[in-house]
Amino acid sequence: MNLNKIHHIAIICSNYELSKAFYTEILGLRILNEVYREERHSYKLDLMVNDVYQIELFSFPNPPKRPTHPEAVGLRHLAFEVSAIEEAVEELASKGVEVEPIRIDPLTDKKFTFFQDPDGLPIELYEA
Hints:
Blueprint: E1 8-13, H1 16-26, E2 30-37, E3 42-49, E4 53-59, E5 78-82, H2 85-94, E6 103-104, E7 111-116, E8 122-127
């Protein structure tokens, strides 16, 4: 098998409008496609990250909560690369997002930090 790249990451949210605003207005992801699937009472929002990667944001009626934080089985966190982490943290803070203090990865000596989406999904910023 020859895997070329990651095609998309799927996220299920509890409040579609709140999460849509977070990912588009706060993180600035571009909407590629938005569909309401009547038979599933579910939205599917395709978002682009730098015209290369795609995040699929789903809504479903009454999805179960994440069992623990952050060490549940499954996706641990979503990480975005940034060029200037201090600027990114300042921008998030100006939009009311609580961000952890910037740390240094002991293996790479790179700066990183975490914040959460509206459902508590851990999101990492990692400086290139």
